[in-house]
Amino acid sequence: MLRHKPPLSSLLLPFLLLFSAAATTTSISKQFKEAPKFYNAPECPQTHIDTDDVDRQTDTLDTDPDSAVHVAMTLDATYIRGSMAAIFSVLQHSSCPQNIVFHFVTSASSDASLLRATISTSFPYLKFKLYPFNDYFVAGLISTSIRSALDCPLNYARSYLANILPLHVRKVVYLDSDLVLVDDIAKLASTPLGDDSVLAAPEYCNANFTFYFTPTFWSNPSLSLTFANRKACYFNTGVMVIDLDRWRTGDYTRKIEEWMELQKRMRIYELGSLPPFLLVFAGNIAPVDHRWNQHGLGGDNFRGLCRDLHPGPM
């Protein structure tokens, strides 16, 4: 089993054992040790990794392209330490690590060559590709939120994965960069989406759903009826399995943008990129077992409310 977002001490211990960071003043001049090469188990299906998916030539396997697991994450110099720990944990707990392809979305203004070199040096056998995300895609759509960190354009890149990733990538597992996996990501990638769902994510129906939208939204019948005939629950977008073919067919990026445009005019929510996802998908998603995202873990250490990390597969 997997537990997401461990306490800070649980996250840093394996990280510090595996990587050493040099103290520098530049944003991404941290030096990390090289991770070992991870090999597929004998029973792993063979797969073909499209050369368009990698930033350099790597050893590839043949035949079934559908056996590849595609993982999308944002990559930023400020949070590179967490990203390195997340990548390592994915590989470490995978039965078929050579079948994993990472798709890293970076800000177009970032130093892509330095980010690429950092990943390549630490994970020389990793199959990955960097994609620049131009801030102007969303800069004019972002409204100020209750936390300035939520206003970063890269936080909205998850809404554009279907546009950014190659068309042959039909399904992707999206992961926030502040996590550590303790189970095989292939199990998560195989989450059934049913006949109609575009994405799967952990739902939390006990959460107060009204909290995520302003009184302006709920007092407007034409807006509040958005959730009519939908059992709308809060869900966490930090762990998602997305059918990109269905997303593209339904033009869901545009639907999210329409809500962001309305937000600029009416202020219908206070948070950043989450509420548009709720408006479009809440009540219409496939559930992901909560063991894949230990929601809130490490979020309130001050009051001693943090939960323990699950030990992993059983």
Task: Give a quick set of tags describing it.
314 residues; two-stranded antiparallel ribbon; glycosyltransferase activity; globular; transferase; 10 helices; EC 2.4.1.-; Spore Coat Polysaccharide Biosynthesis Protein SpsA, Chain A; 26% helix; alpha/beta; disordered N terminus
How would you describe what is shown here?
This protein is an alpha/beta fold and 314 residues long. The protein has one domain: Spore Coat Polysaccharide Biosynthesis Protein SpsA, Chain A (Alpha-Beta Complex). Helix 2 links the parallel strand 1 and strand 2. The radius of gyration is 19 Å and the shape is globular. 38% of the residues are buried. The N terminus is likely disordered.
Query: What is the SS-derived class?
Result: alpha/beta
- Number of distinct beta strands: 9
- Computed Rg: 19 Å
Largest sheet: 7 strands, mixed
Supply the CATH class. Answer: Alpha Beta
SS strand fraction: 5-15%
